[in-house]
Amino acid sequence: MNPSIVRLAVVGSRASWGRLLGITAGVAVGVTLALLLWGAYQGLDARDERSSWMSASGEYVVGGDTSQRAVTGDMASLGNDRVLLAPTTDRHEGVRISRFDVAAPTTSGVTIPDIAALPQSGEYYASPALIDRIARVPADELGDRFGTLAGTISDSGLASPDSLVAVVGAATSDLIERPTAQIVTGFTGPPYRASSNYQTVAIVGAIAVLFPVLLLVSIVTGLGAAARRERFATLRLIGATPRTVAAIAAMETAATSFVGALIGVLMAALLGPVAALVRVDDGAFFPADLAVTPFAAAMVVALTVAASAATAGWRIRRAGIGPLGQTKQPQEKTPSLLRLLPLTGGLGLLTATTLAVLAGLPVPRVGTLIIIGFTITTVGLLVAGPYLTLIAGRIMARRSGAAAGIIAGNRIRRTPVATFRSVSGLVVAVFMVSVFAGAATTADGGVIPVAGPGLLPVSTLIQYLEPTSDAADPAETDAELARLAAIAGVTGVVTVYRLDSGPDAGRLLLSADAAKGLGLGAVPSAPVVSVNSDVMTGATAVFTAAEVTDMAALTPSILLLGTDGSTAAIERARTALQAGGVFATGWAPAGTRTDLADDRLESMAASFATLAYLGIGVATVIAGLSLAIATISAMIDRRRMLALLRLLGMNFSGLRRIITLEAAAPLLSVMVLSIGLGFLVAELILVGLTDGGRSVGWPDLRYLGALTASAVLALAAVAAAASRLGKNTDLAAIRYE
Amino acid sequence: MTAFIQARGLRKSFGTTDALRGIDLDIHRGEVIAVMGPSGSGKSSLLHCLAGVLVPDSGTVIVDGVTVSALNEARRSALRLTEFGFVFQFGQLLPDLTAVDNVTIPLLLGGMKRKQALKEAHGWLDRLGLEAAAARLPGELSGGEAQRVAIARALVAHPSVLFADEPTGSLDSLAAENVLTAMLELVRQAGTTLVMITHDPRTAAYADREIIVRDGQLAATDRVGIS
Amino acid sequence: MDNSLTLLGLLSVEPSYGYDLKHTYDRFFGVRKPLAFGQVYATLARMTRDGQILALADEAGGGPDRKKYEVTDLGRQRVSQWMFTPDVPSETLQSNLFAKTIIALLVNDNADRLLDVQRTEHLARMRELTREKQGADLMRMLLCDHALFHIEADLRWIDLTAARLTQLRNEITLP
Description:
The complex is a heterotrimer.
Chain A: H1 3-10, H2 14-50, E1 59-60, E2 83-92, E3 95-103, E4 123-126, H3 128-136, E5 148-152, E6 165-169, H4 172-175, E7 182-184, H5 196-220, H6 225-237, H7 242-275, H8 287-290, H9 294-319, H10 341-358, H11 366-399, H12 403-414, H13 416-444, E8 461-464, H14 474-485, E9 490-498, E10 508-511, H15 512-518, E11 528-531, E12 543-545, E13 555-563, H16 567-580, H17 593-601, H18 604-637, H19 639-647, H20 652-689, H21 701-722, H22 725-728, H23 733-736
Chain B: E1 5-14, E2 17-27, E3 32-36, H1 43-50, E4 58-63, E5 66-67, H2 73-83, E6 84-87, H3 99-109, H4 114-127, H5 143-155, E7 161-165, H6 173-190, E8 193-197, H7 201-204, E9 209-214, E10 217-218
Parallel strand pairs in B: 3-8, 3-9, 6-7, 7-8
Antiparallel strand pairs in B: 1-2, 1-4, 4-5, 9-10
Chain C: H1 3-11, E1 16-17, H2 18-28, H3 37-49, E2 53-55, E3 68-71, H4 73-84, H5 93-106, H6 111-133, H7 138-163, H8 165-172
Antiparallel strand pairs in C: 1-3, 2-3
Helix pairs in contact in C: 1-2, 1-4, 2-3, 5-6, 6-7
């Protein structure tokens, strides 16, 4: 083919340059997002791999080791191939710290890959973020919990630059009493795989963002299609074969999308560090996590170019451009009721899966079924869109009494597929945002514990003690309690006891004086009183007289440290508890009701809510962009008609109304459906994945914000398009085009 | 008697091309005028200036005492809606609307209720022998039918002036004649002023008078004061 | 076509001998049917009698071919009147209109205007015929159409000639 023909056919005018620029920009945005998503997916994998040493586990030693090589309080009993490990989750100012207490002899052959040598008792290694934090606050609030810094945990052992991790050396005798202590022979096990639920949500999220991107690319490649069809018709008239024309179209698109894809790769590389700042699952990424390998970049570029060129060629061939061009606009096939089938199918699959799970039937691969069901539902929504649009158009064309409504209504009913395509991105975005908002409601409910009369103050630290551990020397215990009570900001120390049997079993016991000191309500006059145990999780306290009367017979179970509520006081108390050692024998370090609630509610939906909103935000912006481009593109293609209406005496506001109605009718008709479907699907996914454990609640403000943002974007998109009306309705167009 | 349409000293250029180079023209109420002249002589520019579609660089257009050339775009839109009708060579019907819906547009723009507008539109289609075509889309009409629908739409709001640009340019002789006689009959009945551009002398012969535009000026015989 | 008025027109370009006049005439209009000498002299004699031309002083005495003729004011008026009076559209019109156009170009008069005047006349006739068609029976209508198509053909020639006047003027300048 003669290159100059291609040049003439492709870059004939300024308008066609605009079209090529539009395609390039659209493809660039699409490739950027695809690469970042791909990078994020790999980044999450890389994270799991790096932090795999943290999930090392072994046999618990609770209750004493009975094996042949029993581990005892003596370090030497470990030998050189075993260490004692006690992992806990500590907190500082509400943020989680992963703490690993390790007991190992200096000669131990067991290593953690990212630490020079295992710390000895009194030493610790910490991640850079934790070291910064320790340096930032007074030692009695954080630093005293750990001992002497021996070194840094390198980035290659951390999930995120924000990770707060400490590996603390300890004596075997200290750890062996801990309920979490286990015997570990190595820290290089296979990487901890995220749960399949976690992956399900991640894949669903990726689909949510990729859909609008694909739509955007499909819309930009259709830019200026009408003008181009005419140019191609001219080529056919002077003798080009349909093959030649298809080849020209393919080459044009291949060249533009290649340039676009290269720009996309560049932008992905530039934006990687910015995107890395997004906190996913409690931490940002290392920039290198999101870096795309040259191989992946080449693959994405090659795929984009091949797919877009093939589509362009195919579209042109299918359009069947003859030498005389198309005197009439291509007739769209009227969408039929059959278009509702995939949507019904997808919903059916989700419903069936959920019902089967609820009924307790053995359902293989629930996650996969849910992804498939969700994808079919999303595609089904897009397939059903034109049919619903057609209905909306018909109603509007029949019912409207104004010229703008009749024109827009008839336009919609004649071209429902094209009309819906412009808004499909927003429809998908709203559907997705509804799904995520619905799913996230379960996490948000009750995250913040309430304070009130009769409730344990949220500023009170709760230290669960290990009931099986022998009560230490009472004198030492009293001295320890006095030390805690003397801490600045600590308002009181109360020991709570428990009985394993008898009428008081299951309730919390404490002395009447201590109970009065808590100030949680009326206390009956008895030497020992009992209180309901769920007072620790936020229930109202109800005191009754206890059966037992002798405090000395009871085992300490919980230590309550009242504070003045300041962060410094809470952290000082927490640090003092850990530094003392006497009470640091529980499953976990002390925490307030807020901290403990946070631990309980930490769920996949919660950790993904932010990410989901971010993804949806990106998707919504892209969808808005698509709507603007599609509206402008449709306006350019119908320039002559709009000019004609102006000639008939319609003013600009009338024309704007037509354009707005053409975007609003399909949006409104499908939007309500997609919101409803979104919540239904969220309910189905949640119930299906959690075995009925969770269900959808009321959406929060962020959701309303997202919906408002979508509406504003849609308006802005249409307004942007309408602002170009003047340029595109030159009355001279009537005669000369 | 002052003329219904008065043009004085009309000049208009597009870039370096002078489309109109000083045109003076009087057209009386109810007159049927054919505008002739070679391609590129400025016929269409003249029509567009008279109809307020184009604003002349200098000179004035007065229609029924209103200085069209001095109105803003909104006022000119309103004037086109109430006073002017337009017919072109082809492709002026909205492709998504049926014939009868196309005809109702000017009435709806003028604020008429849809039911009433449909009744009126059907009346006009009947008068033009298009009863059977009312529910069809423009793509399903023959060239002659489409032109008659366009004429119905141009006249439905009872304009005082009908501007036609080669209204039969894309039709064969017989279809052209049918469309013309139909249009002329309606125009004469209503006393509408018709300004019609045509290349075809046989079309021009339906006019009361023709004016010839050459190089952006009227031919000598047509200048105001001579005829 | 009116031979005498054509000759008068040619004479109004410049004074000429009868012999030269015949050859000029033949060059423009006599390609197929040259003018006879006798007819030229008879016409010159009649025009002299009518005061439209006059013979300049004999240069060497002798026959009519030795006389040089010049157009008078009356003659010029007659030519101008002829040129700008449109002919009734008819099938024999064309040669006369052609002659008028050529003469107008030769005497540097307004040929454009001449064609416009003729166009107006043609269109007026077409309007008459079109009016006659209204309500006439089909036979009458077809007759009118026949006439209309012929007049239209003339008009097309007029339009084409009008568009080519400059070119024509350059081609016919007298030697």
